[in-house]
Amino acid sequence: MSATMLLNNALIFGAALLLVIVASLIVSRQSGRLLRVALRFVRAPDHEALAANLASRVSRAIVVVATVAAIALICAGVSVTMYEIDCGPQLWYWAEASLLRDPMAVVWLVLKLLGVVAGAFVVYRFLRLVAHYLIAGLRRNAAFVHHDAQLATLLARLLVTLRWGIALAAANVCFALAPPPEPVVRALETVTIVALGVLIARTMIVIAHLAVDVVFQFARGREGHRTLRYVGRLEHLAGITKRTLDYFFFVGAATWIFDQINPGGRLSEFGLIGIRIIALVYAGRVLIEVFELFVRELLLADPEKRSEAENQQRLTLVPVASSILRYAIYFCMTVMALQELGVDTSPILAGAGLLGLAVGLGAQAFVGDVVSGFFILFEGLFLVGDRVTVGDVVGNVEEIGVRVLKIRDEAGVLHCIPNGEVRSIANHARLYVNALVEFRLPYAVDVNGVIAGLKAHLTEFRPRCPDILDDPEFVVQDLQDTGVLVRCVARVKPGRDDATCELLRAELLTALVAAGVAPQASHVVVLHNGPAPR
Question: Looking at the predicted structure, is the pLDDT value of residue 113 above 90?
Answer without folding.
Answer: no
